[in-house]
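Worked example 3 (structure in, sequence out).
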């Protein structure tokens, strides 16, 4: 059997068709083109390649009457949407064709030519000249909002695709030309040529723009082997994708469940923390195979069910880690806040072990929570992020879990011994290293402050970092500049406050004694509660702005530093090592 040709019209009409329909086997990885960087540009170039007759790769489709779980293509594609699983009663349908290679292309063509993509529609500029030697980066395709009012020379590709091959092209072309009475001869010729090309490729069926290889066999193992060989080189499936395909060959909804958990994590962390299905699979691999480096070849057939059973026991503690710990303790709502995300896995392993002993987050003592916090902070600041570290930390936790049926404390001492004795690495925290991680440090110092990573209606982010004593303060002394650009003088705050306060002395700002360029009084006193570690206080427990320390910025910053360091010690058991050089 060799590759056969098929038109765009025929291929897209086959997708989800009730007769001889093309579908997605459940073992397929999710659609990824929609989440890639600059996906709209990439997709427009795909259509441009089709228009120019460039090859875009072949498809592999398998026709079988075996009971194979499969999914439909997504119509109106939106990010992270999961294709719908077809009812189990149709899994043995004899006329189904399952796409084993080509999902990304067919899904893209299907949504863009029949529905919407990211809530947008694909359009083409009929005045674009394909033959004028344009820069290869210039193309006639683009995306616009679904309900956009288009210029007369732009056509919606989904409307063009809906035309039937036997419809009159001349009538359609005339309807376009009638939209502009002032069109010149050159423009008319250009539009006629473009419509001819578009019609031949996307409406008629004579031009076979796609190549597909049909497979007919009852042996699913043969098809899976073809699938793996097709995707083990070049722009191949990742190792995680290949492992997913192995697991889904026996548990077809496995990845879908992990994706569902990922969405729950996102929603339970203030709609911000992205811990995707691949991250979860890596954690499961760590629990099953005792390492974080995924290698599908090391997973034996009899271990597939272990991955499934491990996941069944992991979902609850994993949700608790994000909901009760990262969000509950720190209000962390984005993985960008955390410098070393891999170093979080041992804490997840700890949650997994205690949950499977019947304990939950609420059973963790205050002192034990400090141990977890200590590991969390030290692992980020000291970069305990190597794979070998994570493997060994997890082994320490699992070994300790095997020694008792009771709740056990997070083994921070054993982990630190491993680091210092076997790796000869630092287990202490040095101030200069600590202050280098500004966003992370400010988050653990202000755990109740919620960071917002999208601009507000005024175009400002929440938070932005405000220097309490501004860097460009008027009448500052020579030592000032080297003192203020430090965490101890910083506050995460709303963008609107940061822009309002600008370079004003904090005492003037908070006591409404500052003026703007128009001579108007700046009311900054209403923002006092947006700042942490302010002092001193008066007998009414209010900030005492009459104290002379407000007129001594360097002294103020040093005392604020002391308050912040005291907080680190009391809440997290974190102390700085400063009496000797770093190793």
């Amino acid at each position: 059997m060799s590759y056969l040709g098929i038109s765009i019209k025929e291929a897209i009409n086959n997708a989800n068709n009730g007769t001889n329909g093309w579908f997605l086997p459940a073992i397929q990885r999710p659609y990824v083109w929609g989440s890639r960087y600059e996906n709209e540009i990439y997709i427009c170039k795909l259509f441009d390649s089709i228009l120019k007759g460039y090859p875009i790769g072949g498809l592999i489709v398998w026709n079988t009457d075996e009971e194979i779980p499969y999914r439909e293509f997504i119509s109106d594609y939106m990010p992270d949407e999961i294709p719908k699983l077809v009812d189990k009663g149709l899994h043995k349908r004899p006329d189904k064709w399952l796409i084993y290679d080509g999902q990304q292309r067919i899904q893209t063509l299907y949504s863009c030519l029949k529905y919407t993509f990211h809530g947008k529609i694909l359009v083409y500029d009929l005045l674009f000249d394909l033959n004028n030697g344009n820069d290869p980066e210039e193309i006639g395709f683009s995306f616009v909002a679904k309900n956009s009012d288009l210029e007369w020379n732009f056509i919606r590709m989904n409307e063009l695709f809906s035309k039937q091959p036997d419809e009159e092209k001349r009538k359609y072309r005339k309807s376009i030309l009638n939209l502009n009475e002032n069109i010149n001869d050159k423009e008319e010729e250009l539009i006629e040529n473009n419509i001819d090309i578009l019609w031949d490729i996307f409406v008629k069926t004579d031009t076979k723009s796609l190549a597909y290889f049909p497979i007919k066999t009852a042996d699913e193992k043969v098809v899976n082997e073809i699938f793996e060989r097709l995707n083990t080189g070049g722009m191949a499936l990742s190792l995680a994708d290949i492992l997913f395909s192995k697991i889904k060959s026996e548990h077809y909804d496995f990845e879908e469940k992990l994706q569902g958990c990922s969405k729950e994590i996102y929603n339970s962390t203030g709609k911000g923390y992205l811990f995707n299905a691949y991250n979860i699979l890596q954690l499961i691999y760590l629990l099953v195979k005792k390492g974080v480096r995924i290698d599908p070849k090391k997973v034996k057939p009899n271990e597939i069910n272990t991955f499934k059973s491990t996941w069944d026991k992991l979902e609850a503690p994993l949700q608790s880690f994000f909901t009760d710990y990262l969000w509950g303790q720190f209000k962390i709502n984005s993985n960008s806040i955390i410098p070393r995300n891999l170093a979080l896995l041992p804490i997840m392993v700890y949650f997994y072990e205690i949950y499977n002993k019947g304990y939950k987050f609420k059973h963790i003592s205050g002192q034990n929570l400090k141990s977890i916090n200590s590991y969390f902070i030290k692992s980020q600041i000291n970069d305990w992020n190597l794979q070998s570290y994570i493997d060994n930390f997890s082994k320490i936790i699992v070994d300790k879990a095997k020694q008792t049926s009771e709740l056990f404390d997070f083994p921070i001492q054993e982990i630190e011994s491993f680091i210092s004795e076997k790796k000869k690495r630092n287990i202490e925290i040095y101030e200069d290293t600590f202050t280098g991680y500004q966003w992370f440090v400010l988050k653990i110092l202000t755990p109740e402050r919620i960071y917002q990573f999208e601009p507000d209606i005024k175009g400002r982010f929440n938070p932005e970092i405000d220097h309490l004593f501004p860097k460009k303060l008027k009448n500052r002394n020579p030592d000032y500049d080297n003192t203020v650009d430090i965490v101890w003088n910083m506050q995460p705050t709303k963008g609107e406050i940061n822009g309002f306060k600008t370079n004003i002395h904090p005492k003037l700002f908070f006591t409404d004694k500052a003026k703007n360029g128009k001579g108007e009084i700046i009311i900054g006193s209403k923002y006092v509660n947006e700042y942490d570690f302010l002092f001193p206080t008066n007998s009414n427990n209010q900030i005492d702005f009459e104290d002379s320390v407000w007129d001594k910025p360097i002294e103020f910053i040093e005392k604020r530093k002391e308050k912040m360091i005291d907080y680190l010690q009391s809440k997290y058991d974190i102390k700085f090592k400063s009496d000797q050089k770093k190793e």
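Notes: The chain has a mean pLDDT of 90. The first helix runs from residue 8 to 14.
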